[in-house]
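Repro:
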Amino acid sequence: MEDKNRKKVIGITGGTGCGKTVVMDLLEKRFNVGLIIADHVGHELMSPGGINYKEIVEYFGEGILDEDGNIARPALSKIVFNDKEKMAKLNSITHPNIEKAILAKLEEMQQDGSIRFIALEAALLIECGYKKYLDELWYVYADEETRIRRLKEGRGYSEEKSRSVMKSQLSEKQYLENSERVIDNSGTAEETYEKLKAIIEENF
């Protein structure tokens, strides 16, 4: 029997530059949605004293540390981006602990009476098997040129780097096959807000 008090868990995913951050910001500030951002959870666990910190430094070496002893994510990314074996090793260290931490946060947020539902955002929700924890998966879409422009402006990526990163991710077809809804975020934040409002008012 379904628990009527249980809050729905909505997954938010999409490729680099599609604007998942904008969608999450709107959900939190304008719809009272509780957020879990997998990347933030990963950051916490990679901080000194975090459960993933020691093993990452032992495997990749102290060359990935900045002057304060923190893991410099750009340095680590540079090592693993074009090396499948090292990327697999990093994932094997980080993903199990991230998943455990996310499940604990989901459980905790079920007790929060002030939120409408829970949104879990991660670029790799599909690849990492999180669908089993979700009531719905929403694919945040933006057209290719918009994504490249955003990556140039927001992260200083070249067009070549933008396309390289985008190519390494799931295809649009794969996102669509795995998602219950598509949020077109190619336009302004206000246009995206109106789309979210229509969905939320009808379904939540």
